[in-house]
Task: inverse folding
């Protein structure tokens, strides 16, 4: 089979190489899966660079989120067991963690429903306890993680403010359903959010960016607001001033979704059932901006690394496996 492998750490376009390799052999409790679609996530970028908290042994195949087919023909969503990731024709996953792919979504959409939407659901509902009528601010609202949070926020009855970088991404954020869109390249984020909320600020802030975005969050978070720290796509990890959190009465909430797979896997299953229902009702639908063939995976991962994509970019190993656009 064909599979992308990382033999040394660096930029994805430089260190990912497509090879002909043997199909992986599943270990105890694992299954071999035929990959139908593999969604690109920022952790794939970080793993290629050697900067992720999980460091699979070299060489490894990236790709942490797939829609795949089991040997008995079931269509499932899975998080592959590294080093046999999803940017390949076949991957390996833990049998106990397989989830049924929603019938309402095609392969590429189903591949993109898992990590980003689970992260959004846990961040907004489990950690921040978002309530209908509250204001939700989403940084990088047109991106893969942010777009999921926007849809989930709207589904929860929140007023959603999306922060983006550039006119094209602003248009995408509006299409996703943002009530207010702030272009950080042409507007002052703090002033725009305060204007949009009558000076009150946002009740919940969803931040997968870090850096300057986090600093802006502290200036626009409402009384008893909650800032959910999801990641650091900017590359800068903030050092929060806890005295500021005390004075303004807001909470800083960390979210590492992967921990729930071991700490509370039943909650992951419950979340998937909620997401499947929302997809069936057409309330959420992953924004798949590109479907690329397997040989285009490295270039696509690099585009995600460079921050020039919107929504989700999904690798489809073979045309007959990919769903219609």
Result:
């Amino acid at each position: 089979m064909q599979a992308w492998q990382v033999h040394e750490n660096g930029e994805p376009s430089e260190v990912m190489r497509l090879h002909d390799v043997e199909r992986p052999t599943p270990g105890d409790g694992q299954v071999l899966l035929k990959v139908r679609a593999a969604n690109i996530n920022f952790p794939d970028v970080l793993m290629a660079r050697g900067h992720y908290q999980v460091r699979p042994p070299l060489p490894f195949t990236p790709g942490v989120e797939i829609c795949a087919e089991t040997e008995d023909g079931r269509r499932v969503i899975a998080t592959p067991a590294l080093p046999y990731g999803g940017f390949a024709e076949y991957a390996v996953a833990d049998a106990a963690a397989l989830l049924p792919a929603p019938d309402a979504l095609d392969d590429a959409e189903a591949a993109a429903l898992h990590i980003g939407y689970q992260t959004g659901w846990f961040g907004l509902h489990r950690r921040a306890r978002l309530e209908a009528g509250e204001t939700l601010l989403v940084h990088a609202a047109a991106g893969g993680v942010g777009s999921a949070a926007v849809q989930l926020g709207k589904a929860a009855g929140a007023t959603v403010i999306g922060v983006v970088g550039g006119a094209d991404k602003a248009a995408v954020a509006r299409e996703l359903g943002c009530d207010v869109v702030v272009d950080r390249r042409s507007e002052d984020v703090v002033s725009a959010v305060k204007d949009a909320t009558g000076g009150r600020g946002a009740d919940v802030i969803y931040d997968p960016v870090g850096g300057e975005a986090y600093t802006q969050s502290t200036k626009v978070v409402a009384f008893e607001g909650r800032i959910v720290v999801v990641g650091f796509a900017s590359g800068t990890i903030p050092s929060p001033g806890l005295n500021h959190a005390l004075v303004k009465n807001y909470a800083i909430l960390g979210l590492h979704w992967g921990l729930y797979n071991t700490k509370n896997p039943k909650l992951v299953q419950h979340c998937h059932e909620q997401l499947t229902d929302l997809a069936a009702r057409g309330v959420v639908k992953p924004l798949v901006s590109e479907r690329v063939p397997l040989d285009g995976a490295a270039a696509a991962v690099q585009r995600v690394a460079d921050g020039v994509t919107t929504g989700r970019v999904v690798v489809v190993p073979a045309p007959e496996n990919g769903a219609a656009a």
Confidence is low (pLDDT under 50) at residues 320-325. The longest helix spans residues 265-280. The two ends are 25 Å apart (CA to CA). The first strand starts at residue 2 and ends at 6.
